[in-house]
Amino acid sequence: MGHLVGKDIYRKLGQKLDNLTVRTPWSNTLHEMLKELYSEVEADVIVKMPYGLASARKIANVTGYEVSILQHHLDNLAEKGLLVDIWAKDKYVYTISPMVIGIFEFTMMRTGDGVNSEKCAHLFKEYLVDSSAFWDANFSKGQKTSLMRAIPHENTMEDYMEVLDYEKAAEIIESNSKFSIGLCSCRHEKLHTGDKQCDVPLETCSSFGNGAEHLIRHHLAKEVSKSEMLENLARSREMGLVINADNVQNNVGFMCHCCGCCCNALLGITKHGYENAVMTSSYIAHVYENTCSGCSLCERACPVNAIKMQPAAEDSKKNKAVIDKSLCLGCGVCVLKCRQDSILLKKREQKVIHPEDTFERVILQALEQGNLQNFIFSNPSDFSHKFMRGFVGGFLKLSPVKRALMSDSLRSRFLSTMKKKA
Question: Domain 2-97's class?
Fold first, then answer.
């Protein structure tokens, strides 16, 4: 089948990736990146395979590749993190890795032969950091369903006993039995581009359950014990890192230990101006002005520049910390650094709704990005599916329809219906 691959296969691959849950706008940098990561045949397989989960047999039927030849390409793509393979009942099923969380992370978590980490790092920097196109495509329309959510550090809240288990990093670790730690893709990228300014170790990226199993099996991370995971968390607390986790309530798949200088998601806020790049916790920082000394430790610690020092009174030489509520993640890093105990996290007035599970997050992401129809009618080569993708996609892109389905009144019923159909 390789001789049938067209000259514009990488442009088609870019279009396919742009039709997933994370928009991937075309550019010369993306073209160069795809050529570096995918062979022409691998690109052809991705272009032709279904959008959702599919077995090797189903992919063979759709793509026209003979099963044994196809399996070789699927295995290679999974080893590179460009596909995710999941054991379901008695076989593996495959799904395409989006740009994030996926292509970027898994590529920069790879070590050893077969990957040019330095070249990839510079390409990712151009695409994800230097240019705003990726962030504009994914967040400029007010999208709310971020891939990651901040988790408040333990005992930084006014009443820690009321915190739900899914907002406790230690509880997430305690509830799992399979763990992995790998290279932080963002710090690894910054290391190769000369932009790493911190002394935070590279090996911090934590995964759980099926996610950890996938990374371990493909040598993208190493298996660790529960105690090692808890030690990693304790070190991050000591260093004042932000804990960002999978934006779901149940079966959290990953936990990141982020610094403001390296984390691309946090740079999406501070460099590109999209506060919705990371979903906040259910908490927000509150300053007790009567005890605030104006020392500015919290200002320097905040990873998203949400704290500024201002005069405590009109003619006063003393400063006080002021919180920008539109930026505050509710991560608790400022609380850890305050020597006066003048900052605590309080419950936000407006309820923060985190998706219940990965299914809900994917559905909400796809709806917000205008790509939900691709996962309902997933066969790219079927004419009837193509027609229905266009028809349903046009309907779902209507602003009143999208607003209604994302509203508090219809969101739960919409997701419940989607789950039943799935």
Answer: mainly alpha
